[in-house]
């Protein structure tokens, strides 16, 4: 046999092998992974640097949590993402191969003003407030603007209802009625008592709790999520990282249904930086007046012909919401 003939045979053999691999890969997913189980959908329940914890949503691994690698060409994953993944039963690690479309995305600017994704597919933000510590209306507005910016509906959860007595409680209820009229509903609960009004608001949804320190977020989580539900059984814990080593956000299943995405960072999300334009758009009841000011660049302060001030004087918008907007814009410029 000539050398040339041999090499032709080899070439043919190699091509056959390649074709076999390609057809196998198109059936079973990515190549060179003979021990990978077939692809299925999964839910990202936590992120640690380049590693991800994925819970299987179907097939033989449904309900199991696997540490996974992410294919290098993929965009950043965050808690709450739905993905396509495969379990590698040999190495006891999985691999994420695709990101499914997101319903919502919570983002925050990093110190260089680059937008960083934080959590995905949150359906509702629970803004926790309480009679104590007292909450200023402009702080509520700030959280609401952040919710509008993320395009995620907000439910105001007034915790510590057992402390709702006296004239201050009446004033707070009046405030909440104003928000109700603006399209921001609220419920009253007590983490020390009964959460029966809260549970149905979470059931069937993915929620995140936000609000200032001391209003009772941890207390609410501890009632909603008994200790057993806070533990995660990771199938493939070969990373040496342990289970609760990080401040990254984590997704929990509530025993009554529904999911909670929680992290110290997300709890403070109303304090993240927002630009002037997002703040204006976040006061949704004012949108219809913005185009009507005499001056295109009206700052809605003391300019003649300001449609917003006219609307406030006519009782069409709340003067204190307009003040709040000015305050948030001034603050965002000084940051
Ligand atoms: N009276 C009353 N006290 C409550 C209630 N819920 C929480 N508290 C108390 O409020 C205090 C603060 O509660 P936390 O759950 O730590 O508040 P948090 O919002 O998690 O605070 P940070 O961890 O600082 O963000 C604790 O002393 C709780 O016992 C409630 O419904 N009624
Ligand atoms: Zn104006």
Automatic annotation (TrEMBL):
Q: Which residues bind Zn(2+)?
A: 293, 298, 300, 306
| Cited PROSITE patterns | ENGC_GTPASE, G_CP
What's the protein here called?
Answer: Small ribosomal subunit biogenesis GTPase RsgA
Source species of the chain: Fluviicoccus keumensis
Does this UniProt record's set of keywords contain DNA-binding? no
EC number assigned by the record? 3.6.1.-
Cofactor(s) annotated in UniProt:
Zn(2+)
Protein's job: One of several proteins that assist in the late maturation steps of the functional core of the 30S ribosomal subunit. Helps release RbfA from mature subunits. May play a role in the assembly of ribosomal proteins into the subunit. Circularly permuted GTPase that catalyzes slow GTP hydrolysis, GTPase activity is stimulated by the 30S ribosomal subunit.
Residue positions binding GTP: 159-162, 211-219
Q: What SUPFAM superfamilies does the database record attribute to this sequence?
A: P-loop containing nucleoside triphosphate hydrolases (SSF52540)
**Family per record:** Belongs to the TRAFAC class YlqF/YawG GTPase family. RsgA subfamily.
Q: Where in the cell is it found?
A: Cytoplasm
- Report keywords, A-Z: Cytoplasm, GTP-binding, Hydrolase, Metal-binding, Nucleotide-binding, Ribosome biogenesis, RNA-binding, rRNA-binding, Zinc
Q: Where is the CP-type G domain?
A: 103-269
Query: What InterPro entries does the database record attribute to this sequence?
Result: G_CP_dom, NA-bd_OB-fold, P-loop_NTPase, Ribosome_biogen_GTPase_RsgA, RsgA_GTPase_dom
Highest taxon above the source species: Bacteria
Q: What class of enzyme is it?
A: hydrolase
NCBIfam families under this entry? PRK12288.1, ribosome small subunit-dependent GTPase A
What does the record's cofactor remark say about binding? Binds 1 zinc ion per subunit.
- Primary site of residence: cytoplasm
Q: Which PANTHER family match?
A: SMALL RIBOSOMAL SUBUNIT BIOGENESIS GTPASE RSGA, SMALL RIBOSOMAL SUBUNIT BIOGENESIS GTPASE RSGA 1, MITOCHONDRIAL-RELATED
Mind listing the GO biological process terms from this record? ribosomal small subunit biogenesis
Q: Name one GO molecular function term.
A: metal ion binding
